[in-house]
Amino acid sequence: MPEMRFHVRWPDERIEACYSPSLIIKEHFVPGATYALDDFRERSRIALTIAAERVREKYGFLCSRALGQLARIEAAAAQFEAMPGASVTIVSFED
User: Fold this and answer.
1) Cα torsion at 55, 57, 59, 65 (round to 10°)?
2) Contacts with 79 (C-beta within 8 Å, 6 or more apart), sequence order
3) Which residues touch 41 (CB under 8 Å, ≥6 apart)?
4) Coil/strand/helix, residue 89
5) Model's pTM, two decimal places?
6) Exposed (0-12), middle (13-18) or buried (19+): which is 45, by Cβ within 10 Å?
7) What is the tens place of the pLDDT at every residue in 3-32?
8) Which of 27, 47, 63, 88 has its CA 20 to 30 A from that of 34?
């Protein structure tokens, strides 16, 4: 399966490289676009869950790395929940 990384800029300006075992991320995010924190979190949940399921379909087990990435996104997003207008920018894709 083609894996990829997508680079995000968090509300504190920190840039993080995130992992996906599938190119499905490209169907849910656009490089350069900025998403409200809740929207980013929901899009990440959907895309990384689909990615993990695609691995299950092909190899017979969920991709723990995709689920781990989702957990890291959830934890990072939780840090900014109280910040009014918090948003996340998709900096770039790397396949």
Assistant:
1) 20
2) none
3) 73, 74, 77
4) strand
5) 0.94
6) middle
7) 999 999 999 999 999 999 999 999 999 999
8) 63
